[in-house]
Specification:
The chain is of the alpha+beta class. 27% of the residues lie in helices and 28% in strands.
Amino acid sequence: MSENKRYKPKKASIKRLIIAFILIIAVAAGIYALLTKNDDQANENNNEVKVHSEETKETTKKPSKVAKEEAEKVVINKGTVTKETSDTPEEQVTEGKTNEADTNLQMPTYNKDAIIANAKAQVYTVYTDLQQGSGFLIDSKGDILTNAHVAKDAGFVVVKNEHGQEFQGKVIGISKKIDVAVVRVPDLAGKNPLVLDTTTATVGTKVVAIGSPKDQYGTTTEGIIQSIGAEFVDEYTYSHLYEITAKLNRGSSGGPLINAETGNVIGINSIILEDHPEIGYAIPLSAVMGLVDGWTASNETITFDNGEDDFNNNHADEAYFSEDLLKENMESYYELIRQSLINGKENYYQSYILENSDALNTAISLVDSYKMNKKYQSLEATVQSITIGDEASVVNMNTILTYIDKKTNIKQTIEQSFDYTIVIDDFGSYMISNIAINSTVDSGDVVAPPPATSDEENKDAETNTEAEPDAVIPKEDTDEAPVTDTPILDTSGIEEKPETEEPATDESNTAPTVPAKENE
């Protein structure tokens, strides 16, 4: 009994100890999970991508090697971040906000070639001493938006435009948690930025991704947004991502994702999967613009300390003319002309014309004439010759506009020859400064004669009366034919009407008058 009495309390104590121990472990695990949620998620799931489909509301797990297979994550650089950094948590901005009022750039829609032609002057290849990526102009201060992993730990930053001109920039904002950064380029201040849109896109939206993969400027791909809400944690925390079918490649990071239905930029191309190259991910502008706006609000003066480096701030003064680039420039210009004719309202092509130049008024008048009582069908433009000069170059082009005349409903053409004078502006871009129209032939101006009017019928009748006697005379019926003609001409009023009423009819009366007038 004594043994039993000693045993029972011992057994109860063990039970209590076990329960208490379990509770302590559970509480500790809960606290630990809350404090290290992100790290635990990355370790336990081995960097699995959780894709929350907006359509199915189901979770799909991506391969466990996402973080390492994400080709855009170039080798992590050692050392501390010397640029301005921010640990500000992700901020949301008002839905539907745009910077449309801050730019003169007009964004075309649906047509991929027109979207590219319009956007490429504002898209840049971004270089650092460590890696290469992409970026795009977001305001008139010269601020370029890109990914944080592109600009991280950079000793210097250089951006290159579509014509190969380079400009030095400085990182004015970069996050340690969110993969976004802003590079300010003083020499791009005053240039019109792309139109940004923080409206959340919907599944199925057509998109165009632009970037410089493998240092190939202006590479573009098309696709759709197939889901919204992808999330995962790597070096950075990614959330609310657009999953897109527009293929991305190494070097695309930081480039714009454009909504083809509005023409506006809606995201930043950021992630690719090597084992699923057909899938890409973009950070929505709506998820980061609150953070970005805080950085760009700064008006600090940017200075560069290059030391003994060979880099001299920028190479804009080394801009040059190239036949291939001039030809490409004019092809892009005419792509926007076509889009303007299709749209009927917006003058997208103005982004290729030097502001306050004679060319602007000429181009507007020319395009307006293409719309006047005409239904646009097609526009062919061919470069005939290129003359390169030191300060300007001249591109000779032939064009054929095909249209339907709204009055006659007949298909017509306008064939024209032009000389375009091209200069390089302060931003290193080719701009049209003068347009000379060499010749214009409009088939609509050479129209088949309309049905004869009463006056024309009278003229035809007179012509026929002159021709008929030649046909009658060989018959030699009588000599009275001329006699019958004479009374018709003479008896209709020569004797009855005054001379002043029909001077041209009575030759005998007008003969003295005409020489008098000639002498006068």
